[in-house]
């Protein structure tokens, strides 16, 4: 994924590209001039609080909602123009769209039939997502975790290059979350798929995604890599003589500044190399009582980005939801 405004060139037809995408429902701008790319071989987190416009954006990418303006492209094409949609993009929009009386297996078989995909692929996928036995039972009795796995199997039926998944970890237990993370990593890193997952919690996807697109009230508030979000590495150092240590660190080419909010003797050193900081302290003969990596508090950053007065969700509950809603 690259920053807004960069020129888009389809790479092997696997990019997701959103350009100036806007959707209004009556007077509500649910999605407001969004621009971003999603890169193949990586997992991108599409993040924002409830009502930020994530689902509407995914629905526009999947041709389920018509944009008011702008473009939502998969491999350089609109969904409606794709020659083999099920083989190009797999979607997991919600884990509830199953006929409750139908077995998971039959649900997938029905989907497979629409894309000319053999039943053998269904069984292969049920195995892959870990529900081969449960798949013979009625989907109505599935746990949320099983529904998520079934939804993922459905998205993968046509072995598409692009996966768009709405809150795929929702309702999973810790073991399920670990499994999902590993599986999505495998699909992106080993198979080169382009994976976009939405979530309203950065913490939930922090360990899964490499890139992020963060939106609030339909507009982009930040995009980049997780490393960029974390910022430059730094260390928290607590010293008996912080002034002396700061001077020594400075001489060693590691700028340091006092961190009064962290209590007495606390410094922030602009390096993640704890061993180097320890050596400087030893040479300067300053006793340390704490030396630890200082990481950006992502949860706080996420809140700051999305909960500022201009981005605080003004949409929830104040606009009637239209039944068709899609202006198609
Ligand atoms: N069909 C519709 N008609 C009217 N308003 C709609 C419609 N669909 C979505 N909205 C509104 O658009 C805004 C964005 O909704 P959307 O579902 O895209 O957000 P979201 O980021 O996916 O939120 P969540 O995490 O709660 O699913 C919300 O205010 C929602 O009420």
From TrEMBL:
SMART domains, sorted: AAA (SM00382)
Short name of one Pfam family: ABC_tran
Region span, Disordered: 309-328
Family annotation (InterPro entries): AAA+_ATPase, ABC_transporter-like_ATP-bd, P-loop_NTPase
UniProtKB keywords: ATP-binding, Nucleotide-binding, Transport
Ranges of residues in domain ABC transporter: 16-242
GO function term, MF aspect, one: ATP binding
SUPFAM superfamilies: P-loop containing nucleoside triphosphate hydrolases
Family indicated by similarity: Belongs to the ABC transporter superfamily.
Protein name: ATP-binding cassette domain-containing protein
Organism: Ornithinimicrobium pratense
Upper taxonomic lineage: Bacteria, Bacillati, Actinomycetota, Actinomycetes, Micrococcales
